[in-house]
Every structure is written in structure tokens, then in C-alpha cells.
Amino acid sequence: MSEPEQAELIDLLAEQWQALGRLVADLDEPGWRTRTALPGWTVFDVLAHVIGTESWLLGERPPAADPLRPKVDVRELPHVRNETGVLNEIWVDRLRPLPSARLLELYTSVTERRTAALRALDAEAWAAKTPSPIGEVSYGRFMRVRLFDCWMHEIDIADALGVTVAEGGRRGEVAFEEFLGSIPRVLVKRGQAPDGARIEIELTGALARTLRVAVRGRAGFVDALDGPPDTAIALDSGLFTRLGGGRTPATAHAGEIALRGDTELGERLVRSLAFTI
Fold it and tell me: What is the pTM of this model?
């Protein structure tokens, strides 16, 4: 897949934000409060999280805490694992008391302002190094991470509401490539794929492709394996994404995952995919 240029990636982000807005635009209040697969978060909370991140990138701070509400120590929440998680939860907690209509107004405002700010960046600013959830990277790479995050949250909301959204297309392809970048490392670190292992993952569905991973000291994607795969895994790309996102366990989808070769290794790998939650 070709890497998106600055203008295209900004267009894809703007398109992604609009898609999220359309998905929630007609929800009633109970719909907004539907629980998602993300621990502790409703549909409302997912959108509040996006607002928080994009507001922070505009240099804005979370709203002041309401002194009449019980204080929440977000660091004590079991799913908060790092400082990024702390910041996410602070924004969500501070926005949670708002009516959904007001939250949607804030979302529309912040994403429109972010789009304008991104379009105003020159090439030097786009290439500048900046802290991100994946370490210090170029600002442009960070925006690819943002596209993935928002694309994943569109899926989270759609799943919670029981509706279907398009997961493929150029927007999905770019977001999915960002997701795939971590897979070889996850297979070794979490799945304990041994040195010398040859792994093939056949994906069907909206983002169909064949992934081949060779472990040679460290793991990486290869165009072709130097022999038959030690284990071959076949599943839908949507399920693969949800497993990697920690949205669902592999044990709940045994009939949807086909394994060949070393099935013990294959089972261990699919059980260990979750890395983004």
C-alpha cells in the first residue's frame, strides 16, 4: 500500500471524523449511553475521548471538575495503565455530565478546528518530531495513529449499536496498516512465537490479504516465507482487528478461526493478539 501524502492523510482524518459524527447524529439519550467493548465506556464516552484528544492537540485543557460531583481518581481505574490513559479518563470524566446534544456540538466544533489547523501546517511542521502514544515520531506519523484510533472507535460504536459500517476503502486501508505495524512484535512478545518460526495469516473480508511473518531473532513481515508455514491462521479481517484491539477474546470465536500446521502455536498466537487496549 502506498503511504498517504500529507494532504491525503488530512482528508482521510476529516472524512473519519465526519463518519463518526454521522454514526451518532440521530441517537436518542439511551443510545448514547449504550455500553461498548471498552472497559467503563459508553458510546458517549468514546466520543468524549475523541474530543479530549483532539482538544489537547489544539492546546486546550479539560473542563474544570464539577465540585458537586463525587471526585473520581482515574488512576485507580483497573483499565488505566499509563499517563495517556489517565489523560483520556480525565477528559471523559469531565465531559460525562453533559447532555448528548452538547457533546455532539463540541465534537463538531473541535474536529472542524482540528481539520483547519492540520490544513494550515507546512511540510516542516508535518515532519517535526513529536511525542505520541508510540514514542517520538513525526507529526505526520502521529496523525496516522490518530486515524487508526478514530477508525477503531467508529467500529467500537457501530458494534455497540449493532450496526454495520464500512471497514475497508482507502481510509480503512491506511488505518489498518498502522495497526499491522505492531503485529510481528506482538506475535513474539505476547504470543511467544519461537525463533525461526514461519507464520501465515490469511485475512478475508473488507481488508483481505495474506500476512507472512518470519521470526529471525526479531519478527517482521516478509513477501514470501523460506519454507512452509509452521502455523497458518485464517480469519476475517474484522475479527482480526477486534482481537488485536482487545475488544473480544479469541475463545469466543473458535468456529470463526481456522488453523493449520502447529495448531498449539496458532491458538497461542490468536489468544495473545490484544495489544491496543
Answer: 0.94
